[in-house]
Design brief:
This is MBL fold metallo-hydrolase. Keywords: Hydrolase, Metal-binding, Zinc. It holds the Pfam family Lactamase_B. With 322 residues, this protein is an alpha+beta fold. The protein is built from nine helices and 17 strands. It has an eight-stranded mixed beta sheet. Strands 11-12-13-14-15-16-17 form a seven-stranded mixed beta sheet. The longest helix has 17 residues. It is globular, with a radius of gyration of 19 Å. The two termini are 20 Å apart. The chain binds zinc ion. The site of zinc ion has 6 residues, from α5.
Length: 322
């Protein structure tokens, strides 16, 4: 009864956005309360589960470095956030199809002791592994791990605090351009903490079952294609998950906030190359629109699902189910 009410309620809310619909998105979980940590739905034959690893708080001065306060403040109000408090989850997504269990990104990781780095303590208590366990998924069950880029919030869960691989049977997929950048002198000026995460979680993969993807569109597995989306980092990928006519586009950090879809000229401090980041945003928006894709965004309000539509010469985002 409660479930029926929810579905009815969300359908009514979605009705307010003519471009939003639930085709291909069968809701299996509950609603979207703030505390929700696991959300499951289906894309065609693929069962998708979004896990909330952590919550983080970003600031407008980093997210929107060139937005004027007069334009930014009313925009942020529409999303019920303030310039000094933009809450953002870190997520990971599990795809289950046949005998495959594919994890996209791995969260921040977990350590009992705070990580002390240059005198600053970092408390890392990511919940991904706890939540996988809760869903009866063991690390050994994961057949594939797709790593969209090498920032700490996406790679921290690959190894334990003691350096043991969390997914011992997996094949690891990432783009060769991301690998090359972070293993060259080009990344020498990156924060030491980022480099620490990479040395601990990424570099050891070279002796394991590593698959480096190449080019603009690369098939990873049947129904799963990596789409190069550089700019945030040099080798970031988005993931196009397709089953029948249904598509899910995991956009990773190509967009950190829905306002980056609505305002392609607003830049973030977290992108290495603003021009390429903008080109990748346009590419992903056109792709999602052409194939009417459901979108999953890493840093948007959990579980980060929604759709985009054209509005005049620009784009509008609408959360699905909200
Ligand atoms: Zn991120």
């Amino acid at each position: 009864m409660r479930r029926r009410k929810f579905l009815k309620g969300s359908a009514a809310m979605i009705g307010g956005f003519p471009f939003l619909h639930l085709d291909g998105l069968k809701l299996l979980g509950g609603g979207f309360p703030m505390e929700e940590e696991v959300f499951t739905f289906e894309v065609g034959q693929i069962r998708c589960t979004v896990f909330r690893d952590l919550m983080f708080k970003y600031q407008a001065k980093d997210y929107f470095i060139n937005a004027s306060p007069e334009e930014l403040e009313p925009s942020l109000r529409r999303y019920h956030v303030t310039p000094d408090n933009i809450p953002s989850p870190f997520i990971a997504v599990l795809l289950q199809l046949g005998d495959k269990k594919i994890l996209i990104d791995t969260g921040m990781g977990f350590s009992e002791k705070p990580l002390v780095f240059r005198g600053n303590p970092y408390v890392i208590k990511g919940r991904l592994h706890h939540l996988l366990h809760q869903e009866k998924i063991k690390g050994e069950d994961i057949t594939d791990v797709i790593i969209t880029h090498f920032h700490p919030d996406h790679i921290g869960g690959l190894f334990t605090e003691q350096g043991k691989l969390n997914f011992p049977n997996a094949r690891f997929h990432t783009h060769e351009d991301e690998w090359a950048y972070w293993h060259s002198s080009l990344s020498g000026n990156q924060p030491a903490l980022f480099r620490y995460f990479i040395e601990k979680n990424i570099t050891p993969l070279k002796n394991l079952n590593l698959n480096l993807l190449r080019g603009d569109f690369a098939d990873v597995l049947p129904g799963i294609t990596a789409v190069k989306a550089e700019g945030h980092t040099p080798g970031q990928i988005a993931i196009n998950i397709h089953s029948g006519k249904n598509h899910l586009l995991y956009i990773s950090d190509a967009f950190l906030h829905p306002l980056h879809m609505e305002r392609l000229d607003w830049q973030t401090n977290y992108d290495l190359d603003h021009q390429k980041a903008r080109q990748s945003r346009v590419k992903l928006l056109e792709l999602a629109h052409r194939d009417d894709m459901l979108i999953n965004a890493f840093h948007f309000s959990f579980p980060g699902l929604g759709r985009i539509d054209k509005s005049g010469s620009g784009w509008v985002w609408g959360y699905t189910g909200k």
